[in-house]
Structure formats: C-alpha cells, structure tokens
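Morning. Coffee machine broken again, so started the prediction first thing and wrote up yesterday's gels while waiting. Chain of 145 residues, entered below exactly as on the submission form.
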Amino acid sequence: MAYSKESSALVKSWMEEALKLGPGEEWFIPGDTKSQQISLKTRLYGARKQYSVVDPIEAESVTFSPVYRDGDPFIRIYKSKFKANLGFKKMPDGTVQQIEVHADKNRTMKILKMVKDGDNEEKIEKSMGKLSKDEQKLLKLEAKK
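Came back before lunch.
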C-alpha cells in the first residue's frame, strides 16, 4: 500500500480513530515495506501536529512507533494511560505531588471564531496579542478552507 499525498484523508481518518482509543489501548496498521512504515509514521505525526492546534493535550496522548509482528512491518498506535499535561513532582521530604499544566484551549477557540468571522491576522493580534507559530499556522490552514 503506497502512502501518497492523496491518502491524506485516510491518514486523518486514522488519526481520528487513534483519538478514540481508550487509555492504554493500541492498534496496528500494516505496511508492506520499512519505507512505507516510516512514511506512514511521519504522516501520522503530521496529522497529530495539525490536531494539536485544536486540543494539544489529547493529541499528545497518542504516539506512533514502528514495530514488527511476525516479521512484518506495522505502525503501533498507542494511547497513553496518562494525559500529556499530567506530571509528578517529588518534594524534598520524599512525597510526590501530582501537577497539571493547561493549554489555553479557549484562546485557540477564540482565534478560530475570529478567522471564521473574516478577521485578518493583524486584527486578531490586536485583539489577542502576539500569535504563536502554531497559531499562525492555524490561520494559514483556516485561510485555505
């Protein structure tokens, strides 16, 4: 199976299915050759990067890795048991505290709404402040629609 640019809809569909996995679940996509395996992994990470603009925490919970099963190449898609924004801090007394960081999902949603309302980058930056590189990429992606 060749993974051409035309298969991007298929890769996006695989990414959507990967996001539906439960914590600790995994599934495998076969490839005919090692180069197809690597190409697919790269394209899946690209789809994850696009989705991370919408929900970075959920996107980061999915990983892709090349594996072999019975000698055949596969891409292993795995959903982490832990959210990407969860961490643990060891205190000097030896106790451990759970910590969470939060991505500003509301900011992204506001920017998307402004784009849909027809606002340009200058107007958005005037309202929201300097845009990150990911937010600038989001503007470009939305402008192409």
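The first strand starts at residue 26 and ends at 30. Going to sketch it on the whiteboard this afternoon.
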